[in-house]
TrEMBL record:
Family matches, as PANTHER family: AMINOTRANSFERASE FUNCTION, HYPOTHETICAL (EUROFUNG) (PTHR43510)
GO MF, any single term: pyridoxal phosphate binding
CDD domains named among the record's database cross-references: AAT_like
InterPro entries: Aminotransferase_I/II_large, PyrdxlP-dep_Trfase, PyrdxlP-dep_Trfase_major, PyrdxlP-dep_Trfase_small
Residue intervals of the Aminotransferase class I/classII large domain: 59-267
Record's protein name: Aminotransferase class I/classII large domain-containing protein
Amino acid sequence: MSSLATFELLKWTTSQAENATLILSGSAPPSLSIKDLVGLSSDQATTSHNLSLDSLSLSLGRIQGSEGLRKAIAALYDDTVTLENVLTTIGATGANALVFQGLLKQGDHVISLYPSYTQLISLPKAITGAEVSLWKPDIDGDVNSSIHSLENLVRPTTKMIVLNNPNNPTGTMLSPQLQHEILKLVHSHDIIIVVDEIFRPLYHDPNTHLPPSFVELSDQSSRVVVTGSLSKAWGLAGVRTGWITTKNTDLFTELEKFKTYTVNSTSLIDEVIATEALSHRCRPHILSKHLGLAQQNLDLLQISSMSILNFVGGSGRARVLLHLCSFQLMVAPSTMWTFVGD
Ligand SMILES: Cc1ncc(COP(=O)(O)O)c(C=O)c1O
């Protein structure tokens, strides 16, 4: 592996957090406790019982993840996705790392959406030792010109396209039309597409039709891999449960093999908590709490935008340009996202 760039965003946020009174740079709702999970459940007795770990036998879990958890994760997608398509991981960080380490090799060319979460650009670059081309689609503009600019970046050695949808840091989403065109392009060039969908399904604009997950738009022959986790929409980053979802059995087998060598199974304790959080007892209530918070924060942001922020809202997305940071208000500077001059 070539030298790995410093993860500036995480280094900066952890070093600044203790001096800040108000933290505006986070991208997740406040973390839930076990007590919160029980409180949110529609059947508190069952949730409380399922979360009491006294008699949990601390054996090594299954390599793919427990059946109950994989089933609960599959239920986050439409019914074309089944538990056989799901592999559990240590957070989305672990999911993305597994995908890059398991599917890329020295010299492969990778195209990453830009701007994007640092890991999605820096890790492929370190693994392949090659340039990562940055794709900058015009989200609000013409689909054909965005696709054209993506196609122009494709080389004979292009192995993978990496997207983050919805996007961190811009909050933008690719339109269903753009999603379809990207899938056509990767299919015709036999390229693997990896989409970090960690913010799904936290869509808070009632006027926007929920966009499909890329894995829902794929079939067995597609080389589509989606990653996700409990850290954002579900407010459970400390449970360290993430996942990889793909319908492609060759890719699944490769990733499962890599997981066996690198982590074996994920923590059984984490899996028990994650399974209950995604159960029908808890899942809708967690989501509605977090959608409510997102909407409330959006309203607050609009009200306060005059004084400290230049806020540009739009249908189904919130693009926030933070111009000024006053006193102990913690926002993260754009340089932390490996911005390259725009
Ligand atoms: C796009 C994206 N992917 C992955 C992660 C890491 O998630 P996890 O806590 O599940 O490892 C983050 C965290 O901010 C993120 O924004």
